[in-house]
Amino acid sequence: QVQLVESGGGLVQAGGSLRLSCAASGLAFGRYAMGWYRQAPGKERELVAAIASFGSTYYADFVKGRFTISRDNPKNTVYLEIDSLKPEDTAVYYCAAKIGYFSRNWYDYEHWGQGTQITVSS
Asked: For 27, phi and psi rounded to 5 degrees?
């Protein structure tokens, strides 16, 4: 059974930083691309960043320079470091796994975590 478990969210003041983790089990992690998505109330789910199995990365334009995605294949974990948090970053953040190369389309991802809430106060 595949499980993706996110952690690291919380309440933070604007300008602060957080590091999200997503621990994967039940899959050959090294074969999967990983993505971080977010969904704010009343808004569509949007891709924040993605990383291929071999390490190439993609970032949405709105997060470039503030977010850093990385992965540790021996630990079956993907990370998202977020700096200079803004109130508009408030959302539930989900990690997702897709065999092969990453995609910008959420429906291409086969496995999802339960999400972790980030709330940024102004």
From this structure: -145, 160
Q: Length of the chain, please?
A: 122
Compute CA distances 3 → 22, 38, 54, 77, whole Å: 10, 18, 21, 11
pLDDT in tens, 61-84: 998 689 999 999 999 999 999 999
pLDDT tens, 26-61?
999 999 999 999 999 999 999 999 999 998 999 999
Do residues 50 and 65 touch, judged by C-beta distance below 8 A?
Answer: no
Determine how many CB atoms are found less than 10 A away from the CB of residue 29.
20
